[in-house]
């Protein structure tokens, strides 16, 4: 038995395991062809975990690159379940205690932006997609700041360089894609260049358009949400509305992140991008 | 050849397929044991798709419940890749055109809330977790509104019933779990009951605490982010700050969603929860 346990411990060490912050261990099964039979190791790793060889750990994560899809079935049959997946890998999880797991849920929201870009003539930068003039919109990438995504999308759809002013409002909606929820941030930007032109194949045209002309479209008038956003943008143009601006802030980690707040009424804080 | 094509078309019909909004077709492979051999069907479905039998479609989704893990390897070997996974299923995708796919990315953000709950004595509802007094915090569930999550977490951690007032600020941070980003909403709530008590095993204690006492903790003073949030909350208590309140709004779909905005300066809109 001692020899068997020692052998198993050695096999566990063959895997590149590291601790997570939830009392578990993450096993990253990479594409290294020189590793011994992974199928055997997955099976044995779990036995080790159950026998307490992975001391004091509550859970085991296995990250399987898509090239290792042949190991998925074996892991699930051993009691692992899916935690999340990205195009090139699948993360599996095993929870050792009898109690309900306390692991973080998968990501639940996609995040998008819509950009109000107003020039000195009260014209907004618009593009025409399917016959209708629209604000530049887009999806915030994984790891991307909201303000950076707004500037990027404006550039990609109209060719205009701009700087971020503030978040005017945001909307949360549900079941927008499969079961996931959606957060959509309406942003105000200040143009730094003025030569507008369509940038992408799907876009029919891009131009500066009097703001009232945009708002008068039946498409905009039809929906309460768009009318409401229009009212906010108009109030902002008239200097009567304040939204949230990003302020850099450090927290528990050294990592810099941004706090979005109403800087016009908050004490001693200024937006510094 | 005609008979072969007809046979394939029939097999495709055996699957419960429906259109998605991106020019693709979703095949939901459920756990029905009476269906014919799924392994064969996955293989053949793809052939059909490639031959144009799934007319005009650009992509094929396959949703495999975890019980059907035995089909994952076959699908990947046919060229499918992972789109996303939840504990009980894996969604696979195949993109037919040679061009880069235009499908929506997986969810990128987890969403959390922190709750400022202030009573008439300028005391805030706090709980003690690991020796430090903290605001009630928690994760917004999939499909849950931010304001509802804040009320729920306050109830779960302190036993207090409350109503939502507004979002005071929010923070976006990155790589908070695996590669996912995080949006954390600082919310103000008004208590509707006052008998505070700890509700969960992990919580050491819960009490009403003078707001200044909370803010004086070294833990709060140490971090710029917490000091900044403290400043905002104090300004709010003094009637000098306005955040974003939720206003119900309909859009393209019949589905009701909430737009969060500065109702104090926005024209003709009031928060109506």
From TrEMBL, chains A, B:
CDD domains referenced in this protein's UniProt entry, alphabetically: NUDIX_ASFGF2_Nudt6
Protein name per its UniProtKB record: PREDICTED: nudix
Family: Belongs to the Nudix hydrolase family.
UniProt keyword annotations, A-Z: Hydrolase
PANTHER family: NUDIX HYDROLASE 2, NUDIX HYDROLASE RELATED
Organism: Prunus dulcis
InterPro entries listed in its UniProt record: Nudix_hydrolase (IPR020476), NUDIX_hydrolase-like_dom_sf (IPR015797), Nudix_hydrolase6-like (IPR003293), NUDIX_hydrolase_CS (IPR020084), NUDIX_hydrolase_dom (IPR000086), Pre-Nudix (IPR040618)
A Pfam family the protein falls into: Nudix_hydro
GO MF annotation: an example: ADP-ribose diphosphatase activity
Domain Nudix hydrolase, chain residue ranges per copy: 108-233
Organism domain of life: Eukaryota
């Amino acid at each position: 038995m001692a020899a068997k346990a020692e052998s198993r411990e050695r096999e566990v060490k063959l895997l590149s395991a590291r601790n997570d912050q939830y009392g578990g261990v993450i096993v990253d099964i990479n594409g290294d062809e020189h590793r011994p039979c992974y199928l055997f190791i997955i099976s044995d790793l779990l036995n080790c975990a159950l026998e307490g060889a992975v001391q004091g750990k509550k859970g085991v994560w296995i990250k399987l690159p898509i090239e290792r899809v042949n190991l998925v079935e074996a892991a699930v049959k051993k009691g692992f379940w899916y935690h999340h997946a990205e195009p090139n890998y699948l993360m599996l999880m095993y929870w050792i205690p009898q109690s309900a797991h306390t692991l973080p849920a998968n990501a639940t929201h996609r995040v998008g932006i819509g950009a109000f870009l107003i020039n000195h003539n009260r014209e907004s930068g618009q593009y025409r997609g399917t016959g209708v003039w629209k604000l530049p919109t887009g999806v915030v990438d994984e790891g991307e700041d909201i303000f950076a995504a707004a500037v990027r999308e404006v550039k990609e759809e109209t060719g205009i360089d701009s700087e971020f002013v503030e978040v005017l409002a945001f909307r949360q909606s549900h079941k927008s894609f499969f079961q996931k929820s959606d957060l959509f941030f309406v942003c105000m930007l200040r143009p730094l260049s003025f030569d507008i032109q369509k940038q992408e194949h799907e876009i029919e045209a891009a131009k500066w358009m009097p703001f009232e002309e945009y708002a008068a479209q039946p498409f905009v008038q039809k929906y309460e949400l768009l009318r409401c956003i229009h009212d906010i943008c108009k109030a902002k143009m008239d200097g009567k509305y304040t939204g949230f601006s990003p302020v850099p802030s450090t927290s528990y980690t050294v990592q810099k992140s941004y706090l979005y707040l109403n800087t016009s009424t908050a004490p001693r804080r200024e937006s510094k991008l």
